[in-house]
Specification:
Helix content: 10-25%
Distance between the termini: 47 Å
Strand content: 25-35%
Bound molecules: adenosine-5'-triphosphate
CATH class of the largest domain: Alpha Beta
Number of domains: 2
Order of helices and strands: EEEHEEEHHHEHEHEEHHEEEHEEEEEEE
CATH superfamily of the largest domain: P-loop containing nucleotide triphosphate hydrolases
Number of helices: 9
Strand order of the largest sheet: 6-7-8-3-9-10
C-alpha cells in the first residue's frame, strides 16, 4: 500500500517560495501527473518527496510511514531524471543494477531484476553495451529500466521524455503508459507538456507559481477548469476567453460581448446574476461553439480573420468586438478570411469567470433569482 500524502508542504529558496503550502494525496497505484509551466515548482515538489531537497514545512507520508525527514535511500522510492543520470563508463547491465547494488542486494537478485526490467523495456540486446554509444531513446529506456529494477512501490519521474524528438516522444508516451499500468507502482510524473498530461494521467495536478491550482481527472481539468489559468494552460487551442458585461433587469440576465447579447433567452448560472453592471469573462472551448453562415437569434456576428485547415477540422480565428476567438468547424465548412459568420455559445458550454479573481464561478443553469 503506497498512498502518498503531501500535507501543507512548502519550500523556500531565499525569498522565493517555490512550493506554497501544497496538499495532495496520490492514491495507491495511481498515475498522477504534476503539470505546469517552467519554474512553477514541479521539480522542487518532486525532490521534496524523493528526499533530495528537504521540505521547509509540512509532512510527506508514504503508506503509513512519515518520510518527511528520512534520507532518500530510506524512502523506498525510485526516480527517473530528465537528464537520465546514467553512467557512461558502466555497461547497461551495471547501470540498471546500480541502485540495487547500492542497496546491498544479492548478485542473483540483481541479475533477475535487471533481466526482467531489460525485457520490459525491450533492451536485452543492449545489456553489454555502454550508454555512450547509444541513442537518446535507448538511454531513456535504460534510465526507466534502472528505476523499475528497484521494484519500488513509488516511482517519481521528472520530464523523462523531454530530451527525445517528437516522434519518439509520441511512441514512448504510449509505451510508458502501458508499462506503468503493468508495473502498478504509485507514480508521480512531472511534465510541462499538457498533451502528455491529458493522455497519460489518471489525474492531473496543475501547478502555477508554487501553488496547486486544481487536481482532477484529465476530462474534468479540460472541461471544468477551476480557474482561467488552468483553462488557458490545458488544451490545444487553449480555452477562449471573452470579456463581457452583465445586465440584470426584469427580463432576466443578459451578457453582452462587443455590443451583442449572447443567448439572452437562456438561463445563466445563478452566480452571474450578482454581477449586474460588472464585467465578466466567458470561457469556452473552440469545439463547443457553433459557427453558422446565417444570422440566427442568440448568435453573435463575427469576422473571420484566419482559416487553418488542420485535416480533422478547420480552425477559424474570428473577431468579436475586441475579442479574438478560435472556433473549430468541420473540415468541409466552406469559409474564407474576411467572411462574416454567426457564432452560437451553448449556455451549458460556457464557463463564467470572475475577472477580479480569475476563478470559475459555480455553474448551474437555474434561472436567475430562482
Ligand atoms: P522546469 O520545468 O523548468 O524544471 P519546475 O516547475 O520544475 O520548472 P522548479 O525547478 O521546481 O520548477 O523551480 C521552481 C522555482 O524555484 C524556480 O523559480 C527556480 O528558479 C527556483 N529554484 C529551484 N531550485 C532552486 C535552488 N536550488 N536554489 C534557488 N532557487 C531554486
Amino acid at each position: 500500500m503506497a498512498e502518498i500524502r503531501i500535507e501543507n508542504v512548502s519550500k523556500v529558496f531565499g525569498d522565493h517560495v517555490a512550493v506554497d503550502n501544497a496538499n495532495l494525496t496520490i492514491h495507491d497505484k495511481e498515475f498522477l501527473v504534476l503539470l505546469g509551466p517552467s519554474g512553477c515548482g514541479k521539480t522542487t515538489l518532486l525532490r521534496a518527496i524523493a528526499g533530495l531537497g528537504m521540505a521547509d514545512a509540512g509532512t510527506i507520508t508514504i503508506g503509513d510511514r512519515d518520510v518527511t525527514y528520512m534520507r532518500p535511500g530510506e524512502r523506498k522510492i525510485s526516480m527517473v531524471f530528465q537528464s537520465y543520470a546514467i553512467f557512461p563508463h558502466m555497461t547497461v547491465r551495471e547501470n540498471i543494477g546500480f541502485g540495487l547494488k547500492m542497496n546491498g542486494a544479492a548478485a542473483d537478485e540483481i541479475k533477475k531484476n535487471v533481466d526482467e526490467a531489460a525485457e520490459l523495456l525491450h533492451i536485452e540486446q543492449l545489456l553489454d553495451r555502454r550508454p555512450s554509444d547509444m541513442s537518446g531513446g535507448q538511454r531513456q529506456r535504460v534510465a526507466v529500466a534502472r528505476a523499475l529494477a528497484m521494484k519500488a512501490e513509488v516511482l517519481l519521474m521528472d520530464e523523462p521524455l523531454s530530451n527525445l524528438d517528437a516522434l519518439l516522444r509520441l511512441e514512448m508516451r504510449a509505451e510508458l503508459k502501458r508499462l506503468l499500468q503493468d508495473v502498478g507502482a504509485t507514480t508521480i510524473y512531472v511534465t510541462h507538456d499538457q498533451i502528455e498530461a491529458l493522455s497519460m494521467g489518471d489525474r492531473i495536478a496543475v501547478m502555477k507559481d508554487g501553488v496547486i491550482q486544481q487536481c482532477a481527472e484529465p476530462s474534468t481539468v479540460y472541461a471544468d477548469p477551476s480557474n482561467r489559468f488552468v483553462g488557458g494552460f490545458i488544451g490545444n487551442p487553449p480555452m477562449n476567453f471573452l470579456d463581457g458585461t452583465v445586465h440584470v433587469d426584469d427580463a432576466g440576465v443578459r451578457v453582452s460581448i462587443g455590443g451583442n447579447d449572447i443567448a439572452p433567452t437562456q438561463d445563466f448560472a445563478p452566480a452571474v446574476a450578482g454581477f449586474d453592471g460588472r464585467p465578466i469573462t466567458i470561457g469556452i472551448r473552440a469545439e463547443n461553439m457553433r459557427a453558422l453562415t446565417e444570422q440566427t437569434e442568440g448568435a453573435v456576428p463575427v469576422t473571420v480573420q484566419v482559416v487553418e485547415p488542420l485535416g480533422s477540422q478547420n480552425l477559424l480565428t474570428v473577431n468579436v468586438g475586441d475579442n479574438r476567438l478560435k472556433v473549430s468547424t468541420h473540415p468541409t465548412f466552406d469559409v474564407s478570411a474576411g467572411d462574416t459568420l454567426w457564432v452560437q455559445f451553448p449556455p451549458e458550454q460556457i464557463r463564467w469567470i470572475d475577472p477580479a479573481t480569475e476563478e470559475v464561478l459555480p455553474s448551474g443553469n437555474a434561472a436567475v433569482g430562482a
